[in-house]
Structure formats: C-alpha cells, structure tokens
Amino acid sequence: MSVKTHWETIYSTKAPEAVSWYRRHLETSLALIEQAAGGYSASIIDVGGGESTLVDDLVVRGYQDINVLDISQTAIDVTKKRLGLAAEQVHWLVADITEAQLEPGAYDVWHDRAVFHFLTAIEHRNAYVRNVAHAVKPHGHVIVSTFGPEGPTKCSGLDVIRYNAESLHDQFGVRFRLVQSSKELHHTPFGTTQQFLYCYCRVE
C-alpha cells in the first residue's frame, strides 16, 4: 500500500476527533507561530495540516497568508467543508512533502506537527529538509513537532522515529539555528498520553 493510499484510508474511515493526534486547539503551535510570524501578513505553511484545527485558529486570529499541505485529498476536503466560506482565505496543496514542488523562498513560517517522525527512510528525511531549505525564506522560521524520546514507537499502524532536541536538530543541519525546544504531554481522545517534542529553528 502506498503512503498516500494509507492516509486516504485513515481519513476516509475515521472521524477527525477519532485519531490519536487530535487536539481541539494546538496551543503550543499557535504560540510558536505567533512568536515567529511577527505579524499577520507572514506567509505560513502547515505541513501535514490534514484535518487539524490549526488552520481554523489561524484564520480566526487574522493571518492573511495561510497555506495547508497534506498528502490526503480527503483530509483537505473535510477541513475545507468545516471552514465553509473561510476556506477561500486559505491556499490548499495536496502533495507528499518529500516530493512536493514548492515555490522558492515562499514562506516565513514552516509548521509541522506529526509528519517528520513518520519519515523512517533517510532519503525521505533528506528530501523533506531540502524542501524546507528551498521553500522557507532566508532568516525564516521552522517549527517541527515529533514524538519525543518517551513517545510511541508506532502510530496509525506505521513505524515512527522518536527524537530529542539534539537528534531532531541534527537532521536539519547547521543552516538551521535552534532557538528553543520543549516537550508536551498530549492527551489523546482515547485517554492515553503521548510525549511530543517541539523544536523551533531559524534559517541562517
């Protein structure tokens, strides 16, 4: 089964609030984006945005250049329907981030919660990092959240890689300066907990 087919199946068979990563509001992500963006005109891309409510909160706060990328057309369609007319304020991209053709220097802020840890093959991680370096403006901001060192080893039937701040930053290299990192205990809809790691970097 291809990666795209896997995620289309997940989003076609489960309600948005019935997946382990669901959170009503991504408070940590919102705070970091606000810190990084420096204003409402900043260009923001949410990679793996899927059915996340982050885009709803960004629209409500008044951000004017919001971009959501996901591998699943189903997830994008669900989110657009939820937003209603507000969906017209968002740029939607359906693509695998390891293969996506993004515009050079297009984004001030890159946000990813729970995509990078699924990239278990080094060539996929390298492709992801190349896309970040290509698509984020010089001196732009990169916010990536993965499972932390005490997080799950599998998610949605797939293996994942757990990271601490040092090992995650090492994946990106010296061009990315680590500004701050933090851990967050996420309470799933099923009553379990998952440790997430957030790293916020600046592009040098």
Describe this structure as you would to a colleague.
The protein is α/β, with parallel strands linked by helices. It has one domain: 3-Layer(aba) Sandwich (Rossmann fold). The protein is 31% helix and 30% strand. The protein contains six helices and nine strands. Strands 3-2-1-4-5-9-8 form a seven-stranded mixed sheet, sandwiched between helices. A two-stranded antiparallel ribbon has the order 6-7. Strand 2 (65-70), helix 4 (73-83) and strand 3 (90-94) form a beta-alpha-beta unit. The chain is globular, with a radius of gyration of 16 Å. The mean pLDDT is 95.
Residue-averaged pLDDT: 95
* Helix and strand sequence: HHEHEHEEHEEEHEE
Helix content: 25-40%
How much of the sequence lies in strands comes to: 25-35%
CATH class: Alpha Beta
**Shape estimate:** globular
Q: What is the assigned CATH homologous superfamily? A: Vaccinia Virus protein VP39
What order do the strands of the largest sheet run in, or round the barrel if closed?
3-2-1-4-5-9-8
Which topology does CATH recognise? Answer: Rossmann fold
Biggest β-sheet, characterized? Answer: 7 strands, mixed
Number of strands: 9
What is the total domain count?
A: 1
Report the uncertain regions: none
Rg measurement, Å: 16 Å
CATH A-level architecture = 3-Layer(aba) Sandwich
Structural class: alpha/beta
The rounded distance between the terminal residues' Cα atoms is: 38 Å
